[in-house]
């Protein structure tokens, strides 16, 4: 009887299993930071992404797979925006009371406002998030990875994304994608942001009041939608209202997410630069008339 074959099989199995173990001492959260990587990245691309993110030493990245994308995004994102592999990745810095600060690189379809709206609806209101990829991609893999990261680290972070809220985030993405075909992804994400802020401000109690707010925001932005699209938006926010979301936290998270440019312009050194620039331009034209 040949005893070598089972012994050899056991040895190979042990080696394969050992290779699948996480790095010794690696943690999913290091220095309040979580990292996600798309599963399609090569080893070299992973290295590039981790360096680009300035990922902490010893961190164990959470891998976003195609199966995860199906789980977290479902049919909410058009198939055309989900093909071509899982490349976009994210660095999440956990914060408290700061709202969302989202920066993207090489992401061509999911906008910063789309990330913010989906994440806030799912239950993420405070974080600094940097999303990147070594190639131009739609950005859905990063959104998948972020959702998965919060699920896997809920015990450590205390932030638990309920199934109901994740389903609402999926519904919101679906509505955003559909209406974005008419008004553009950037514009529709901004509209969602404004509607949420108005709901937080007015606190409607009936479906009619919610519909009135949606119409009010659309009119303020000179946006015309079909009756069907208006119904989609109204139904989405009715579902959010029924889920008893914390609208003040949602509004705060979104407001902070949209202040990047304004905050930049308010910096003293930036204001000083423009003051000097305008002064130099003024002096130049004065010299022409002298």
Shape: globular
By oligomeric state, this entry counts as single chain
Low-confidence stretches: 1-25, 258-278
Number of domains: 2
For the termini, the CA-CA separation is 107 Å
Helix/strand class = alpha/beta
- Helix-residue proportion: 55-70%
Total strand segments: 5
Q: Largest sheet, if any?
A: 5 strands, mixed
The mean pLDDT is 82
Put simply, the count of helices is 13
Share of β-strand residues: 5-15%
Rg estimate, integer Å: 23 Å
The SSE order reads HEHEHEEHEHHHHHHHHH
* Order of strands across the main sheet: 2-1-3-5-4
Question: What's this entry about, in short?
Answer:
With 290 residues, the protein is of the alpha/beta class.
Q: What would your notes on this structure say?
A:
Helix 4 packs across helix 8 (185-202), helix 4 runs antiparallel to helix 11 (247-257) and helix 9 (207-220) crosses helix 10. The chain is built from 13 helices and 5 strands. The chain has 2 domains: 24-157, no CATH class; 163-264, no CATH class. The model is unreliable at 1-25 and 258-278 (pLDDT under 50). Helix 4 links the parallel strand 4 and strand 5 (127-132). The radius of gyration is 23 Å and the shape is globular. The protein is an alpha/beta fold and 290 residues long. 60% of the residues lie in helices and 9% in strands. The longest helix has 22 residues, at 268-289.
